[in-house]
Amino acid sequence: MPQAVFITGEATIEVKEVAKLSPGPGQVLVRVHAAGLNPADWKMAHMLWQVALDTIPGSDFAGTIEEIGSAVPDGVHSIGKRVAGGVYGYQRKFDNLPPLGAFSEYVVVDADLVWAIPDNMTYEVATTQTLAALTAAQILWQSLNAPTPEAPAKEPTPLLVWSAASGVGHWLLQFAHLSGLKVYATASQKHSERLKALGAVDVFDYRDPEAGKKIFAATKGSLTQIAVAETTQDDVVNIINAFGDNGGIFAACAPFLQMPNSTKPVEFVPSIVMTLYGEPLAPPFNIPALPEHRAAAAVFIKRIEKLVSEGKISTLPVRVFNGLESVWQGMEELRTGKVSGERIAFKIVA
Ligand SMILES: NC(=O)c1ccc[n+]([C@@H]2O[C@H](COP(=O)([O-])OP(=O)(O)OC[C@H]3O[C@@H](n4cnc5c(N)ncnc54)[C@H](OP(=O)(O)O)[C@@H]3O)[C@@H](O)[C@H]2O)c1
């Protein structure tokens, strides 16, 4: 029997046997060669969302297609093809479906939600991309309705990417740069040169309480759009200080942030990447299925595949752990702040 990591209690995970899944119509079965770690994974394992109990954590996977379900159009995929993608499993227990998550030897996934891994990219690198890339795509192209690489900005409109050295921020910076935006960034200063090489006009330290005011000065009060990756509630006033006097849109993948009273009009647009999978979201989110988000996800995956295959995306360094048994160790590294400007992958197939 294949194995998977299960959340079996608060801050408790176990590797257990799990029934092998079969792909449904329009799906493929993927043998997972490497799984990628995201902050949501340790947050779920620590039961920040009670619903996570008895589910398999992990969204990001990379592997080979082992079986193709019915209704997948001929020629789209082939057995053995190297693909990466994301799954969203914890809703499934509410629908009485078998458990699914990336910290597992197999996943089933909709055939249009995987992207082909280029020959020059390892499974370990590929597996650390999808959730961050989809989150960035959602912030940029759903929340901010920003230009795209196919139809880039005609004017160099400024955008602030807060936390550009995070997984989500790294994609935000590159997506925005490729879409013709003039990107200002925040990150630890050690990442500054690397982020400038990816298109950031300037990089400010998010720990500097004056960062927002400095960005306001650098943009001459013209900033109306801010894309936020990692942040804390304590950063919010600093971030808002970067807006011009007319305020603007504060788009963040942090749904529980509170906006303070501000003299600048700020529209807070939170996003949750799981809505892209087209299923309803269980508590604490309570969001119905959004078919338009599911349709957007397929467009985003195609865009990711194209940009990666064209070599237009630079990936963060990856630290590799071995096996499902190492998942807890990786989660602890991330939870305790020992991951900076890098991503963590778990090698599943030796
Ligand atoms: N709502 C959603 O759907 C969704 C989806 C994906 C992620 N998220 C959330 O988005 C956040 C980022 O995820 P990720 O995968 O990009 O994380 P990540 O790659 O693990 O982020 C690590 C980076 O966070 C930066 N950081 C730490 N504290 C910060 C702060 N106060 N302000 C700015 N940057 C800070 C550090 O940057 P330096 O190295 O520069 O210090 C570090 O490199 C997480 O909170 C995650 O839970 C939400």
From TrEMBL:
Cited InterPro entries: ADH-like_N (IPR013154), ER (IPR020843), GroES-like_sf (IPR011032), NAD(P)-bd_dom_sf (IPR036291), Trans-enoyl_RdTase-like (IPR047122)
Domain Enoyl reductase (ER) as annotated: residue spans: 9-350
GO molecular function, one term: oxidoreductase activity, acting on NAD(P)H
Protein's name in the database: GroES-like protein
Organism: Exidia glandulosa HHB12029
